[in-house]
Amino acid sequence: MNPKITLSDRPSRAAGHPRTTSESEERFRALIEHSYDALAVVHANGAIIYASPSTQRVLGYAMEEFVGRNVFELPHPDDLGKVEFMFAEVVREPESAVATEVRMRHKEGSWRWVEAISTNLLSETSIKGIVVNYRDITERKQAEEERADLLESERKARLQSEAAQQRLEIQHAVSRALMDPALDRGEVASRVLGAIGENMGWDLGALWVAEPQTVVLRCFNTWHAPAIRADEYESVTSRMTLWVGEGLAGRVFASGEAIWVSDVLKQGALTRLNAVAQEGWHTAILSPVRGESGVLGVIEFLSRQTREADEEMLQCVAALGNQIGQFIERRRAEELTRELSTPVLPIRERLLLLPVIGVIDPQRAAQLTDRLLGAIRNNRARAVVVDVTGVAMMNSNIANHLVKTVEAARLLGATVIITGISPDVAQTLVRLGVDLSEISTVGDLQGGIEKAERLLGYKVVRVEKL
């Protein structure tokens, strides 16, 4: 062990003048012994050869306990490498000084943060060691850590608040699209995909919907960010059908669980891998579209960046999938109701019957036209009987819409015969000046059907009752 060294054994220097008198020695010793900072002299091999009295206050060791220890026994394991590097740097450069902050073991076993300045005085014949001045900065470091923790907590709270606000804005945008009666289903799907994709930073989205009473998924609509070209992917996706369990979308439909795939190319489960590889897609998020009757489809978003899984975003997309599912069920119910309220019935080959009952508002009038023209095309009808016996009143707008519907049917090659106009409706139409001169009308349904049959070349024979 290196012998204990005291400062009185060697001459000291202050302000460049040698201290040779006893008075100077005592003054310097008093400064060392009453200093708030601790001081140690360390041999080039790491052995401590001197310790000031403040060592006990800082690290709990008496001077005689500290001298003889190796300086590398004291640092925290995580700081030992830094101490070794710093010590080697100081030893290599004479008269160099290096400052550092490390954790040192207290005699009681706890860890104390110390701020140390190490100076190479190995060449000084009166010192021949590394002089280390150090002080306890544990309270300061704890305050810094508490402040850092507070700032981190505030940052996380701010991010959570911003994320919550973003999710709320997305939900509002999705709700507005889903509740807008002026939008058709394709427009709704496009706006919903755009609201989610743009606000969550995705590049491409798709909505897959299962055909009713089948196990087949079809792409209903796609969306992509304005700055993104996705021609190949959208072209392939729009033409594709998937069986339940096929590809990522089919698997999500079958499992009913949302998933996050950080790299679809590595997973190899996407059925459009050529388009994915060609256009550089990496991360995908998919969620079931769920209604009260079960899973109705899947929403899918992709990014060209590799993104780590975000559980909160996954839950948000899953919640939006439920909203979309409720919308799909509601629209299907409305369409079924409209179909039942305006049935177009084929009663003979190329002869259709449309019975209209109840109030006709503009929305129902437009739906009636769509249903009728679609049925004419699908059945290749040549004659249509529209029976309005159940319509109690009709304004000029509805009457003019009916006239235009008859003209549109004529362009499709079908003759429309209107039956059952009530006296009140007839008087209203005359008073309003609605021109029905180009429309064939018959008083009752039976007469209208017979007239239509004659137009089609059928021979109508009335059988007298016995």
Brief descriptors of the model:
rod-shaped, 466 residues, Beta-Lactamase, five-stranded antiparallel sheet, Transcription Regulator spoIIAA, alpha+beta
How would you characterize the overall build of this protein?
- The protein has 466 residues and is of the alpha+beta class.
- It has three domains: 130 residues, PAS domain (Beta-Lactamase, 2-Layer Sandwich); 177 residues, 2-Layer Sandwich (Beta-Lactamase); 114 residues, STAS domain (Transcription Regulator spoIIAA).
- Helix content is 45%, strand content 24%.
- The chain is built from 15 helices and 18 strands.
- The strands form four sheets. Strands 10-9-8-13-12-11 form a six-stranded antiparallel sheet. Strands 4-3-7-6-5 form a five-stranded antiparallel sheet, sandwiched between helices.
- Helix 5 packs parallel to helix 11 and helix 6 runs antiparallel to helix 11.
- It is rod-shaped.
- It starts with 11 loop residues before the first strand and ends in an 11-residue tail after the last helix.
- The N terminus is likely disordered.
